[in-house]
Each structure stands twice: as C-alpha cells, then as structure tokens.
Here is the input.
Amino acid sequence: MEPENDTRISEFLLLGFSEDPELQPVLFGLFLSMHLITVLGNLLIILAAVSDSHLHSPMYFFLSNLSFSDICLVSTTVPQMLANVQTHSKVISYAGCVTQMDFFVLFVGLDSFLLTVMAYDRFVAICHPLHYVVTMNPRLCGLLVLLSWIMSALSSLLESLVVLWVCFCLDLEIPHFFCELNEIIHLACSDTFLIDMVMYFSALLLGGGSLAGILYSYSKIVSSVRAISSAQGKYKAFSTCASHLAVVSLFYCTSLGVYLSSAATHNSHFSATASVMYTAVTPMLNPFIYSLRNKDIKRALKQFFRAKQ
Here is the structure.
C-alpha cells in the first residue's frame, strides 16, 4: 500500500535531540547560553567597527556584516528549538517551517559569500598593497556585500520553491532541531530525483564556487608571501589572514563534515547533533577568533566602554 500524501499539511514535528525529560533542561540551558553568547559577541564586533573611526576599513566593514549574518543565523534556528523545549511541544507550522528553512539557507549562503569577499579583500591587501585603497573603495565594498545578499536571496528563493512543489506523506516528523532542507525533502511521497539534482547543483554552484574563490585567493596570497624576503614581513602578512583562515576552516570543515558524514551513515540523529557545529558553535566562536588576537578591536571596545562610564 502506497503512503498517503497531502499537499495541504498545516504543521511538522521537530523531534530535536532527545525525548528524555531529564535532558530537556540541560539542552535548554546549553542552547540559551550559546545563543546569548553568540548575539552578545557579534554585537560587540559590530559596535567596535561602527564606533571607532580607525576600524572604518573594508576588512572591518565585511566583518561587521559577517557578525550581523551570524546573529541572524542563530536567531533563525535556536529560538524555535528553545520554545519547543520550554512548551514541551514539537510542533512547527508549515508556514513557519518553510520560513525558517528559507532564512537558514539565506544566512548560511550569506556567510559563505562574505567569507569569499573577505578572502578577496586579503588578496588585494597582500598581493596589491599599493592599489588597495583605490581598489577596495567604499563603492566596491558596498557592491560586494549587496551582491552577496542578492545571490544568497536567490539561492534561498530557489530552495523554497523546491519545497513548495513537494507532496508530503502523512509522516511529518523531522528528525532535527530545525527545518533542515534535506530532511524536509526526505518526507516527500513522490520521486525526488529532479529536486535532489536542483539542490545539489545549487549547493555546488554557490557553496563550491565560494570555496573555490577562497582557495584561489589564498593560493595567490601564499605565492606573494613566499616572495617576501624577510621573515618578519612574512609573519606580518600571514598574521592579517590568520583569523579569517580560522573562521573559513571552521565554517567549511564543519558544514562539509556534517553533510559528508550524514550521507555516509544515513543517521539523522547524528546529523542533527553534528549540525550544531556550524549552525550554533561556529557563529559563537567567530567573535572570539577575531577579537582575541586583534588589538584594534580590543582597543575600540575599551575606548567605547570608558566613554560610557
């Protein structure tokens, strides 16, 4: 007997991590803490970049946009999970699920594009330092950020249209803590081959293209740094890229690791647990990575809080 389907469904069930009642307060406290730390840390980065005139440069402009994107990313998934734990409910409306998935894809894509733009900024700064001010002018920086938003929005719109075409079965349980696109597609009753091809093509074109841009930029940076004669000069050049490299490695290694491991194991529970790394942990760690070794941000924050006293 074939599974029934219904195109007029009204809600999904988010199964989350565990049904153990004793574990729910621990999960609530953990994710609430991570969410607050992420929002506060990224707000401080934005505050430092806006308040200090010395940080009005392309690098910090892109960084503040990345921080804003990270705040939106965690605010798309974590609050719904916290609300479900607090109310002992697993229900999310169909419209709410599609909206959450839409914004999640938007801000993950925006993170990816902004990291690529930041890699290009470091490429120009190290490989063409004499032309940096002229090349990375405010107009170009604004256009790069705008283009990142447009590309991310188009990708998000495409994924949303794909979901709206799907006919779902009556089993509407999503083994995840948010409406993850791949898990939603797995609930379809009809053949999803064409949909899967659209998803993979979009991911390859956008995610793969962004990663290729980053790798190309750093290949040129490494070539330029190797040509520097002094060890101090090489260290100074690489130090300007250290934080960005750490964030890029964390973002792509965790996201690729989650999808490759979930494809190999087909374990939805493992995928949900592992996805916390790039949906919550990475946005939380980014402010620490950029601020701990960055004297300019530390100075800007100290001056801001002194002025408020």
